[in-house]
Amino acid sequence: MKSLKTVFAMMIALVLMLGTVSASACTAIYVGSDLTEDGSTLFARSEDYSNSYAKVMYVSPAGEYKAGEEYIGCYGFTYVWPKDSYSFTTFSDDNWEGSQNICPDCGETHKHNPYGAAGTNEMGVSMSATETLYCSVDAVYDLDPFTDIGIEEAEITTVVLSQAATAKEGVEILLGIYDSVGCNNGSGIFIADNTETWYIENLTGTQYVAVKLSSSVAFANPNQNVIGLIDLDDTENVIASANLIAIAKQAGTFVGNEEENQIDYQASYNGEEGVSSRMVDALNFMYGTTDKTAETITPADYTISNVDENGSIVPFHSNIALTHKYDVSDIVAYYHIPSIGKAGNTENHIFQIFSEDSKADTVEWVSMDHGGYSPFVPFLPMLTSDTEACYKASCAPAAFVTEEPTEGWYYKTTGRIYTEEGRKTVDGFKVLPENWEKSLYWTMDALSNAVESGKFTEEQIAEVNAKMAELQNLCYDAYDTLMAAAAGDDAVTMCTMTSATTAFNVHQEALKLLEGIQ
After folding, report:
1. Helix (H, G, I), strand (E, B), or coil: what is residue 40?
2. Chain-centroid distance, C-alpha 265
3. CA-to-CA distance for 370 and 414, rounded, in angstroms?
4. Which of 22, 46, 391, 499 has the fewest Cβ atoms surrounding its Cβ within 10 A?
């Protein structure tokens, strides 16, 4: 992957020219295999929720969930496992022993995997979920509201990766749940294997669209739905809920051609949604411009469609024309855009999927915390039996205090307190938990907040940026080592060790940057 090193510094310089800071939120990107240097399919997402909100990463072993057992999620969804689970890589909000097994999302202590976010199972099915979407049209939502017992995005990866042997089966499992109990919120979801990539959007309780993406389409998704005009007769590449058109017609929001079985999903279900600053920055990055604004961007600039100007069915396409063929370094640079890579990132992941059928056809690149200050470490997930200890170090939550601490690691920030007058935002300090330095998440959180809260001097910030670039190049070297190990003897042991060693080195180098800073 020589090109990764040669373009990395140039791409980072470019993205620093783009972007304005916006509220924490997830941002995805997809680039089809015709548009990449090595012919791989690339899709990625930053998982955003809150600054100093820990994640762990691990391998869920085969049989972790047993046939006939009931899985209880965070928010009312339950699921009886039809068969023993496959093994899969996954994330979790930290509800492990360091937090006394208390889930930071629902406050419960029962066994569950909150916000698994992304992963790949032993069968080679990969997915990225928890890209939250919203319905801006009350008339539609009132007819098809979210359901209390529906599946919440926090549970989607765990359920699908536990059970799906192919991407298509994963789609069928998820849509079957939507049809039976609905969903608890809106989502944009990727499900892929080495033969195809599906993208699914739902904006209301039981209505959805799933599309098989073409190899020639590219798009960005910063919490905005991107499926536009679709022809539902394209049954090979589109699966939609039965009442998709009927609900929009009943709401009086339908845009499309009912006779041709075509609906503009974005216009019909989300036509009042505006354009976020992250969409502006993402499109400027992908179009290679700096002049797009929220006022000039229209849905035609970012939506995908399988209908051409004559109304005929064609492969899914967008109007985004990339300035060059992408590789992983371009996606890494995407997550250095200031509005996209930021303190609210909990983790970031890139999937690089090749068409050949092998245990090395899927690469999962993982960055913990701030995408701009945390290198992406490569894994071959089907050849990974465990993750390095720093990914699994569990800690208590961070604490917010209004008086400056006399010990421990902390940084200046604002927080919310409750008084007799109500909730107030006040200046204070976020204090990292005991043993934070054992965790890769918390170490990268300490580093990024040291930069952004003024703990580092300008000279030290330059040193941090140089070290991050150096470590990213180390990760690119690790990719080459992984690919060689995948073809050798004892591939699982060697690939697991390569990724673990790379993560360990990233962790130790980040700790060195933090030494002496308080």
Report:
1. coil
2. 23
3. 18
4. 22
Give the position of tokens 């999903």: 265
Whether residues 435 and 492 fall in one domain: yes
Residue 190: domain span: 2-388
CA atoms within 13 A on the CB side of 107: 0
Between CA 185 and CA 46 the distance in angstroms is: 18
> CA-CA distances (angstroms) from residue 237 to 44, 145, 187, 231, 336?
21, 26, 19, 10, 33
pLDDT tens profile 129-176: 989 999 999 999 999 999 999 999 999 999 999 999 999 999 999 999
Question: Is 39 contained in some domain?
Answer: yes
Residues 236 and 321 in one domain: yes
- pTM score, whole prediction: 0.94
Q: Is residue 379 part of a domain?
A: yes
Helices (H) and strands (E) in the chain, counts: 12, 24
Query: How far lies 166's CA from each of 127, 198, 215, 465, 518, in Å?
Result: 11, 11, 18, 40, 49
Assigned domain for 393 exists: no
CA distances from 58 to 15, 24, 87, 179, 393 (A): 31, 25, 10, 31, 10
User: Is-contact 143 179, C-beta < 8 A?
Assistant: no
Do 413 and 428 touch, CB atoms closer than 8 A? yes
Query: What CATH number is associated with residue 252?
Result: 3.60.60.10
- Distance from C-alpha of 55 to C-alpha of 368, rounded to nearest angstrom: 8
Characterize 310-323 residue by residue with b for buried, 16 or more Cβ atoms within 10 angstroms of its Cβ, and e for exposed: eeebeebbbebeee
Q: 204's torsion region: left (phi>0), alpha (psi -120 to 50) or beta? A: beta
Name the residue with tokens 């000279």: 459
Dig out the tokens for 313 from the structure: 């069915």
Rounded Cα distance, 32 and 287, in Å? 15
